[in-house]
Predict the 3D structure of the following.
Amino acid sequence: MRAAVLHEIGQDKLEVLDDVEAVGFGPGRVRVRVRATGLCHSDLSAMGGVLPQPAPFVPGHEGAGEIIEVGEAVAHLKPGDRVVLCWLPACGACPACKRGQTELCLAGFMNAGTPNFKRPGADVFGFAGTGTFAEEVVVDAGCAVPIPDDVPFDIAALIGCGVTTGLGAALNTADVEAGSSVAVIGCGGVGISAIQGARLKGAAEIVAVDPVASRRESALRFGATRAVSPDELADAKQQVTAGEGFDYVFEVVGKSATARTAYEYTRRGGTLVVVGAGAMDDFLQLNMFELFFDEKRILPSMYGGGDVLRSYERTIALWRAGRIDLAGLITHRVPLADINEALDQMRTGTALRTCIEI
């Protein structure tokens, strides 16, 4: 089968090969025919070594498709079922799951160290235990979440990561208060989803911050009340908050520099929500006095900060009701053979989300 493979960490191009085989099928596992997958910035981060991932590997973790085979002891799925792939499944038995913090379950991360694929002479890993830049993938049954027939594969793929992460940051982690002021730094697919979440919660002012003009224009269509470049943020703070700072600031870049900026633009007693996934050696510096004196809440948001399955259901309900726009997030479409074109679209910021049709 075909799959896009990164041979070594640090390479900026993927090679689409036709000699890759999905492995690991057996009891408790399912084989999925991938139909659509989104390109998330985390895929680029893993390719560049910002996020830890063994190589060679197949990137991709935001996918949807249909079941083609189920292993023994899998009772809730059957061939033909439409599913979204969940890269962070909950085991239901660990302390985090028992506390109701299923987004902190580590079971899914354990899959990242086991090869999902093989090709002649080499094992190949799947990013985040999945690897959706492939025609097929074998995953634990818990990673394949059934979706209704009316949800298109491309929409379902977005729900698998970016939309759930961004919406959840506003709805679950921050629980944005109606009438509040919000700034979102970084307006790709995840940032736009955070903007939609803040709009749903009734934020009065939502300032989108991004260096790319086309993304700023998109943010206004999705609910931002104004959109500015990073060097215009100070003026926006003055105009919107009379200089006090925003009630909520969402950092959706994953860098300490933007997190520090987000902290500074959060009002005293306000909330900074860290959504972007950054590097282990990139340290955010805060002094002990400002932590005490400013009383700002710093809330990391892992995968939207809530029960993943419930978040999927909620997102589908909001989409059906027309309360959120998911189709509009897909600005580009490419076949798997042109995956490197999608990477360029992400790097230059010309795409909110590129759908890779497989």
User: Anything to note?
Assistant: The longest strand covers residues 29-38.
